[in-house]
User: Fold this.
Amino acid sequence: MSFKEKTLEDFFQLLLPEIDNQIKEEIERISENYSQLKYMLRYHMGWEENEGARPQGKRIRPLLLLLSVIGSGEEWKCGLSAAAAVELVHNFSLIHDDIEDKSEYRRGRKTLWVKWGIPQAINAGDLMFSLAQNAIANDKKSLENSKTIELLKLLQKTCIKLTQGQHLDLLFESEELITVDQYLNMISGKTAALLSCSTEMGAIIAGANEEKRRHLKEFGFSLGMAFQVVDDILGVWGEEDVIGKSVDGDIAQKKKTLPILYALQSSRDMQKLWRQNVLDQNAINELRNQMEKIGAKKHTEKIAKSFSDTAMKSINLAITDNSMRDALLSLTNQLLSRVN
Amino acid sequence: MSFKEKTLEDFFQLLLPEIDNQIKEEIERISENYSQLKYMLRYHMGWEENEGARPQGKRIRPLLLLLSVIGSGEEWKCGLSAAAAVELVHNFSLIHDDIEDKSEYRRGRKTLWVKWGIPQAINAGDLMFSLAQNAIANDKKSLENSKTIELLKLLQKTCIKLTQGQHLDLLFESEELITVDQYLNMISGKTAALLSCSTEMGAIIAGANEEKRRHLKEFGFSLGMAFQVVDDILGVWGEEDVIGKSVDGDIAQKKKTLPILYALQSSRDMQKLWRQNVLDQNAINELRNQMEKIGAKKHTEKIAKSFSDTAMKSINLAITDNSMRDALLSLTNQLLSRVN
Assistant:
């Protein structure tokens, strides 16, 4: 099958249903005798019609994986189990993060721990983690054993990074000040590691050479970093850039995101304002203005731009096929379009 | 190296330090930058000297795995990573179970969630789970790729069973009556699956034929079932059999263990007594007497005996070497010695 002339939209239409079918198949491995457990996972994935089924998340990780497979010259079907695996890992971590962060809603639906209690939700997350590993170990497609082991090694290394990143994130909550470097280190584990794993898996599955594999890995990593930093910008200045984004989000919740940390690091006045127990609307506006004045927005945008540039450069280095390169560049632009 | 004439005690002395060294090595994969996270896992394993280091658990699963490897004619060193993996899975599940059951102490030490809070404890459990998988996928010993994949598949299947068993256990808490069959199904996942996985892994690593593999798997499974059922008996009649066991444990806490379920299933009087909100000492004694009278103790002992017999028979069928067979029979006896 040729992918010449295919646009990103064509790939969405082709791949998204296949990805969901594969994830459904993995979840079907749960025995029929455990109907509630199966229901919990399906509910979390957004497939239970009577429970506000959609939206279901953007499936960015499996999409990146499959596009990396195709872009490296292999059939996308060879990557389907691994694609399901990265999405399952992502969702396992969401289930546990929601408990850890006490988040009551996700994608407009009540979170698992709110509906079924913390014990059952922890356990359902553990099961989703098992199913992720299982998807790769049990893949009956066409991968050689050596590739399967390579994929599992990478997945494990990634999950270790994920939990290390989450550990830091939780730790930082109780620390008054953390440095920008500490923060970047944290998001490299919590966000970028799994995106980097997804694109690198694409290279492994396609049997790409070391150089292409390195570029694809770098692409996923930089995209992940850029994505999180853009999110941080929107968390403070969102209403100016995107319609419908919550107004004072990160400042009001005193989240230590990149622009906020940069501002705190650069200004004692900011630190003083920040230390107030409750931030009222005046304080929030004052903080936002101060942050802009001392260049926190510009500085953060510069960092986002730098990661985004590296991501684009890596695509160009990794992918030779024009049509596939365009698709990956479009996807990257779409994900990061919220910033210049 | 010959194992002729070696006793179980010799194997303990040889293997226990090697098992702990291997687990320590797996935990050392956590980067030095995450010292608190590493400390949490080492603390849970009982290796932090200033925190009441011992006791550390009996390492039954890795011991069974390595003895199964030797008994199937292979070098025990080939099984070391897998041995670490099953112990890490066991301990990951303990960390999460302690949160789910609100247990404040384990092995005389405060549990992770009590010391570091639920969010960090969930995450530390997730990391331990990742390290378990990683131990096998990254094994640099001498296993062929096909065996490594076989081991990982089995580990995943087992973890799915573990979480299914735990799901039922949590579910049963809020159900007034569950049947003996439902209970046996629950412990087959929660307890027997990982023991069965351990002995079957031994067979896989040694490249044993299908028949031996089946017998070893059956041995681990039956031992696991027997072990749990014996525990249930001790939870009600412990003081008569074992010195130092808590007096009224399971009845006072209204745990739905096997003898209690059997009694409830067989007698309406029992159900009536059981439904009292708080069980005082009189009610506990009355319940225990009633249970004995209607044959709950005898019946449960019969079930334990039947599993224990199957375990012994399976050892005899799986292991031809006399000295190894004796070691495994001794270990089984030691674990189940608390019942006739």
